[in-house]
Amino acid sequence: MSLLRLSGSERQKLDPFVIATGDASLRDQRDLMERPFFSLAKSRRVTPILYEAGNVRVEVFAVPDHGMATIWDADILIWAASQIVEAENLGLKTSRFLRFTPYQLLTAIGRRTGASDYKLLKGALTRLQSTAIRTTIRNDARWRRHQFSWINEWEELTRRDGCVEGMEFVLPDWFYRGVIDCSLVLSIDPAYFRLTGGIERWLYRVARKHAGRQSGGWLFEIRHLHNKSGSLARVSDFTLQIRRIAQRQPLPGYRLRIEREGARELLRILPARPFPRSVDSAVDPIERSHAATVGRSDAALSGDHTQKYQLSLWPETAIPALNLEYNKESNFLLAPDPGENQPDGAGMSSFNPASRTPIQKGSGKEDDIAELPLDPGSETDR
Predict the structure, then answer these.
(1) Is the sign of the CA dihedral 77, 81, 84, 87 positive or negative?
(2) In this structure, is the dihedral angle defined by the CA atoms of residues 287, 291, 297 and 303, taken in order, positive or negative?
């Protein structure tokens, strides 16, 4: 693929990482899996996300013309991370400068490849590029804040008839460094793309990062989860959505249970059993996802938010996934069973919500609060 370079383009200084195939086990970047880096709403969000917990700060700002990058747009970053990790594991040279065909990307994340899907992909890339992030995560004592966009620049190669033959984009250094460090990525189940709601998608990523083999699982205060999500929904609406998710049990590899401790409502996340295979296995081909089609976050409640259930592409019994990783970053951890082998620091920890309260501005509701059903066979996925 030969593309003309704009003067001053960052791609002039980077060797391209050419994607040879779309097949790669899915990987997600740890830092993105629980903190509020993306809008969870399907409607356009311009209200900033301002989150602070201890020495961690995340600020996300949107351009009004495009809106904030959504958790569905983040599928592109998951794909990019998966391709980079797969190549690194094979001993191949990678780069922040990715060269690929839209067909490779869309089919890998379970999307169709019609003209409208290519257009929506470009809308998602535009939001990823226009969304600005400032964070203190992974900064040392001297350099305290890093600002970037999810994509530095992107370009498409088209034929004279307008058909897109190839694409290129450049990832930010902050994201790329977090992917090539194997300790900062986790495998995820391909059934993640089946999840339809923004909150349940975010909740899966939280579960994947925190829940390990300990039989007691992880226990979060729901109000604390609301703070960590960056959601503009009211706490009561967010809590109602969590209850509905726990009732449906849609998260692959995890079971959810609502508990109470006095006036506090809690969510316990438990690894599902038995474990027939690990999520590190090869990714199965995906024909179409229940996730919102790339680029539809700024649509009003219209054809992009249909009201009947869509046909499932996975069996109703989602593949339970073995989670081997452990992470101490949580608000509430139950003491594990004495007979289980636990990593260092896996004892009881406590959480004071007042000491880790995020700063959020604005008000509103997430579109997925309504739990709109889907239209079978519709071209407009949620």
Answers:
(1) negative
(2) positive
- Amino acid letter at 25? S
Q: Does residue 296 register a pLDDT over 60?
A: no
- Distant-in-sequence, close-in-space partners of 232: CB < 8 Å, separation ≥ 6: 41, 45, 47, 360, 362, 363, 364, 365, 366
CB 76 within 8 A of CB 294: yes
Q: Quote the CA–CA distance of 371 and 131 in Å, as a whole number.
A: 27
**Burial class of 83 by CB neighbour count within 10 A (0 to 12, 13 to 18, 19+):** buried
According to DSSP, the β-strands at 17-18 and 97-100 are parallel
At residue 155's C-alpha, the angle toward residues 146 and 70, to 5°, is 55
Q: Is 321 exposed, middle or buried (0-12, 13-18, 19+ CB in 10 A)?
A: buried
Identify the weakest region by mean pLDDT among 84-88, 89-93, 268-272, 354-358: 354-358
Backbone angles phi, psi at 353, to 5 degrees: -55, -30
